[in-house]
């Protein structure tokens, strides 16, 4: 009985420490900046200024395998797998987008960098580029996600946009803010570019 109580206490303490460390890490991680220009019923309209991104495209083979492969390629670039062996800080969110035959993943690079500051990737499939600034509708939600939940949230956002009279002008994109091992306070967005007259 004493062993069981001791085990439960140790497990609880470990979980508390794990959650605390995850929260501390998330607070230190730079986030891409945007401005909320309007709050609608169930979603926000945000203005995203241009940002420098590292992007990879891959053929669709299997959702988890593709995402893991793309993440490893981008992580290798920022962790020193570039032509200067230079480490670059991780930021959030990670952008993920799918169409009928391609998977796309992007890391937002730290705002302090200029394009000329950044090393060229060793992996020629990684494209360093500016994103296009613009207005986006954003639906935020919590928890772990898979392809079905992402599709459901895209559908929800599309319905909200239709009711509010907005027209999407691009693809839906999933934004993930947490490390895979974060178990609470998980943050996610679905965004899509819209026509918006400010």
Which secondary structure elements does this structure contain, and how are they paired or packed?
Elements: H1 2-28, E1 30-31, E2 35-40, E3 43-48, E4 52-59, H2 63-78, E5 91-92, E6 94-98, E7 102-108, E8 127-130, E9 134-142, H3 147-164, E10 173-176, E11 187-193
Parallel strand pairs: 1-5
Antiparallel strand pairs: 2-3, 3-9, 4-7, 4-8, 6-7, 6-10, 9-11, 10-11
Write structural notes for this entry.
The structure is a single chain. The chain is an alpha+beta fold and 198 residues long. The chain folds into 2 domains: 33-49 and 133-198, no CATH class; 51-130, Multidrug-efflux Transporter 1 Regulator Bmrr, Chain A. Helices cover 31% and strands 30% of the residues. It has helices at residues 2-28, 63-78, 147-164, and strands spanning 30-31, 35-40, 43-48, 52-59, 91-92, 94-98, 102-108, 127-130, 134-142, 173-176, 187-193. The strands form 2 sheets. Strands 2-3-9-11-10-6-7-4-8 form a 9-stranded antiparallel β-sheet, with helices on one face. A hairpin with a 2-residue loop joins strand 2 and strand 3 (43-48). The radius of gyration is 19 Å and the shape is globular. It starts with a helix and ends in a 5-residue tail after the last strand. Residues 9-26 have low confidence and may be disordered.
């Amino acid at each position: 009985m004493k062993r069981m109580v001791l085990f439960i206490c140790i497990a609880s303490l470990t979980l508390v420490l794990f959650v605390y460390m995850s929260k501390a890490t998330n607070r230190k991680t730079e986030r891409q900046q945007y401005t909320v220009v309007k709050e609608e019923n169930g979603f926000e309209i945000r203005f995203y200024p241009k940002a420098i991104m590292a992007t990879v495209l891959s053929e669709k083979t299997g959702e988890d395998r593709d995402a893991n492969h793309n993440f490893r390629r981008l992580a290798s670039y920022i962790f020193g797998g570039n032509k200067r062996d230079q480490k670059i800080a991780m930021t959030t969110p990670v952008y993920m987008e799918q169409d009928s035959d391609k998977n796309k993943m992007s890391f937002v690079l730290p705002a302090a960098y200029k394009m000329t500051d950044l090393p060229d990737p060793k992996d020629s499939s990684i494209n360093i580029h500016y994103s296009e600034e613009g207005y986006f509708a954003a639906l935020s939600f919590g928890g772990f996600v898979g392809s079905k939940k992402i599709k459901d949230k895209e559908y929800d956002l599309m319905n909200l946009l239709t009711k509010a009279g907005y027209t999407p002008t691009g693809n839906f994109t999933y934004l993930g803010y947490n490390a895979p091992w974060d178990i609470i306070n998980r943050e996610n967005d679905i965004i899509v570019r819209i026509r918006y007259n400010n």
